[in-house]
Amino acid sequence: MLRTNIDTLVKLSVQGQITPPLMRGPYRVSREGVPFVLPGTGGISYNVKVGHLAFGWSGDHVEPGVSTAATIDDRGSAKNTAYNTLACVGNEAVVISGDAKGAKGVVTGMHGGIEHVLIDFAQEDLEKMVIEDKILIKSFGQGLELLDYPGITVRNLDPQLLERLGVKEDHGQLVVPVAGRIPAKLMGSGIGSPSSASGDYDITTTDQEEIKALGLDQLRFGDFVALEDCDNRFGRSYRRGAVSVGIVVHSDCLLAGHGPGVTTLFTAIDGSLAVRIDPEANLARLLGIGSYR
Predict the structure, then answer these.
(1) What are the chain's domains?
(2) Using one digit for the tens of pLDDT, what is the confidence trace for 250-275?
(3) How far is 159 from 248, CA to CA, in rounded Å?
């Protein structure tokens, strides 16, 4: 059994609300120079769920389930920064206003830039929700440490989810199951961020032939993935030999330098973190949520 500092972690309430979709203009321009008008971030996605493919949607940066923020109008505020940072994948969320009051969901990821926390709820609960309904999250997990693996930094992960991931210990390494491997050359928007304790960064998908050749076009929302040669300890950067593990949180994109977003969960540069391929390494399957309900 993994030894952690779970007994010292702080469980804290953070509160958000369902956000409206936002657009800075009616058109965006794709990586091929083609203007497009498509659904994107925000709102309640009734038919896009964790467990579905992250590719193939007629959308851009589509977020599965419910998109939330602490405040709608000032995304760069201290409230939104705290909300996006303190919420962790696997945290319990509860609706506290409106017709869906009392419904429980699960945090599935964080989306940077727009500062959204993404939450999965049952379909019958989605049908009762409206924009600006309030949601309480019991944030728990930031500050989590693996006592026998000091070289591994853990971010954005509920300790109870850690226990269900199926990680194994093998000759001084922690081995995490992942659905795919992403070479560092494909990581784009969000690289260079000063912190990996919030938000995400994107797998770039301009080279569709390369994406298909690597089988990455089969990635799903909620897939755990390995980011090769990616150091996410103190921001996001390239480092040969580093390994990071994250979770796919939003859909493919048409913008240059963008694609499915990945929220960081583990990272190490000392060789103590390893991965094994498991096509079923997906949050929705693990928790019986999203398309697996």
Answers:
(1) 9-139 (2.40.10.170), 153-292 (2.102.30.10)
(2) 999 999 999 999 999 999 999 999 99
(3) 19
